[in-house]
Amino acid sequence: MAWVNGGPATTLASEDRGLLYGDGLFETIAIRQGQPCLWRAHLERLAAGAARLGIPMPPIAQWRAETAAMLAAAGVPASATLKLVLTRGTGARGYAPPAAPCPTRLLLLYPDGPQRPWLRSWEQDGVLVRHCRTRLGINPSLAGLKHLNRLEQVLARAEWPPPGEAPVATRVAEGLMLDAWGNLVCGTMTNLFLVDADGGVRTSDLAHCGVAGTVRDLVLRCADQLGMPVQCCRLRPSALGRARGAFLTNALIGLWPVRRIDDLNLDPQALPPVLAARIRQACFTPEPDW
């Protein structure tokens, strides 16, 4: 189901800058019990990204009203994925942004199908991860933003087959990406955390590239509240060999422990259970009065 600017639609203006230039942002939100999860965090990140790009941010009340109407029209699905897209709207030919942009709001709803049987084991026993050949470009102006240009991730994800096309024992869940300088940044669709021997966690500072995920921020806050050492820093690939464990996060998977990266075995139980439980609960509990 798709809505554009407040109502059902199946088309988008051919001059929309999101289509032509990737001039926009998006949020991917888990729907549970018919309501969005981490709603405030997603809308705050969308607003912050719009401010950095100079795109007028529609009122959050408008996003909420349209989301509620769309969910109602879809029969209030118990479990689904909602994608919010904000573009700069239409404009004249050329890169120069319009002086007074009229942004486009696009809402996409994907009801969840039957759960794939291997996902439960990935959550409990950990996932297989590989390194990607494709690297992330250096661009501090866009670092942290969930902007619409995802070509680097598209190319990286094409480096291995979809999970359903590989034997269960060798299914790769995610690929890790380095930046152009060889630093370890993130997965194609996730943020990466390393668990040190002292129980502390480390993740890339995302100063030059990568997406600052909503669940990444949640991990940083929860770890701090639990008194766990937490550090955002530059990560070299060699840090993997010194880590006791690792885990991946995003708003749809919540948290996946890692059991192997290429030929490197890691302890999927290295993550403190109290942190894992808190993250998973926060990820998939709808917010009251969202």
Descriptive account of the structure:
- This protein is α+β, with helices and mostly antiparallel strands and 290 residues long.
- It has eight helices and 15 strands.
- It has two domains: 2-111, 2-Layer Sandwich (D-amino Acid Aminotransferase, Chain A, domain 1), CATH 3.30.470; 118-283, Alpha-Beta Barrel (D-amino Acid Aminotransferase, Chain A, domain 2), CATH 3.20.10.
- Strands 7, 8, 9, 10, 11, 12, 13, 14 and 15 form a nine-stranded mixed sheet that branches. It has a six-stranded antiparallel sheet with strand order 2-1-6-5-3-4.
- α6 (214-225) packs across α8 (273-283).
- The longest helix is centred in the N-terminal third of the chain and has 15 residues, at 39-53.
- The radius of gyration is 19 Å and the shape is globular.
Reading off the top of the CATH hierarchy, the class of the largest domain is best stated as Alpha Beta
Principal-axes geometry comes out as globular
Percent helix: 25-40%
Q: Helices and strands: which structural class?
A: alpha+beta
Largest beta-sheet characterization:
9 strands, mixed
Would you count the extended β strands for me?
A: 15
Strand percentage, roughly? 25-35%
Distance between the termini: 22 Å
From the alpha-carbon coordinates, what is the Rg to the nearest angstrom?
Answer: 19 Å
Oligomer: single chain
Give the full name of the CATH homologous superfamily of the largest domain.
Answer: D-amino Acid Aminotransferase, subunit A, domain 2
Reported CATH architecture of the largest domain: Alpha-Beta Barrel
CATH topology of the largest domain: D-amino Acid Aminotransferase, Chain A, domain 2
As for the number of domains, it is 2
